[in-house]
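Long-time lurker. I teach an intro course on protein structure, and each term I like to show students one example going from raw sequence to a predicted 3D structure in token notation. This year I'd like something fresh instead of my usual example. Would anyone be willing to generate the tokens for the chain below so I can use it in lecture? Attribution to the forum is fine with me.
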Amino acid sequence: MGRTWMAAFALLASGPAAAQAVNSPDVPINPQDTAGLRKVGAEVLFWSQAQRDANFPHMEKIFPGHIVKAGGKVRPLPAGKPLAIADTDLDAFIQAQNIAGIIVLQDGKVRLERYARGYGPEGRWTSFSVAKSFTSTLVGAAIRDGYIKSIQEPVTQYIPELAGSGYDGVTIQQLLTMTSGVKWNEDYTDVKSDVARMFLEPVPAGEDPTVHYMKNLPRDTAPGSKWVYKTGETNLIGVLVMRATGKPLATYLSDKVWKPFGMQQDAFWMIDPAGHEVSGCCLSVSLRDYARMGQFVLEGGKGVVPTGWFAESTSPHADIGEPGFGYGYQWWTYPQGRFGAQGIFGQTIRIDPKTRTVIAISAAAPKATDADYGRARTAFLNRLFEAAR
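-- Reply from a regular --
Happy to contribute to a lecture. Here you go:
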């Protein structure tokens, strides 16, 4: 599908202040030291190709963040039968889409794995909005752990500062499906849009910057009646999970997925001016661990999320206005029962339950969003799924 999205702010600023990365959830940043953080990182949208190639695999050198720690035991990804795709076709796709890495798992075995643009299996690559699906997974984990009772609970149960705002009466489920009815502008070309402004305004001491901004947004439609893509709401989900669990998202993701499922490398999650993970964006992960995440979801997350959580999360709950496509709980849904996570500049995890296949792609596309690029990507991924039958 043609619409990929910039996660909220794309966010933090480069420069001396932002370069002072925080590498552990246990080490808080000084909330007053936000000179580099208050500048919108929309400049990421306008990086040159050389800058994208250089920075996408090294965001931790530019932005502050927390580490999602891997454990000692790694889940193996054994080699499978090579996928029957002509090398010339694969090379053309990699070149046309500015792909840095592509991997195809079927039944947990690697049937295709290729790297380009100086990238390799030892590196990490930014996810942009792919992180939204990781955040959704933590909601499921928090429900199973008893921190959250139900997605039918009101958001104000966990974020009471939203009482009296447009979020009064909005449920966790409506946040997950982006159907809150709260007015929002996610236009990355508009400097006055919500997505551009949310971290620019001064925040009173002690307030969460996401909550401070979101509580002042007006109601537009009745909750549950209209889908509008809002990265700010994924950020609210992250605040909610942090409040419910009492843990940084990086720590909780490490405890619930990274260590028990055997991710191979630490991940890096960028933080906002308050030192909280940007739950709608900006998680940097290795290509093989993106694929492992897809495999974790495909296998149902047993012991981590409630039974049936991923079947429910990856079903279409919201009409996005494109026939055959929809939106679940922070997951995109596609024709033929496929679903996935996606971010700007070509970041992709796509899953086909029928063939038990996971495809992960890290890329540095020429544009943040491009309808023709998206259609060409989907067409080739469909070929890969068909080859896996």
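Some talking points for your students: DSSP finds eleven helices and twelve strands in the chain. The mean pLDDT is 89.
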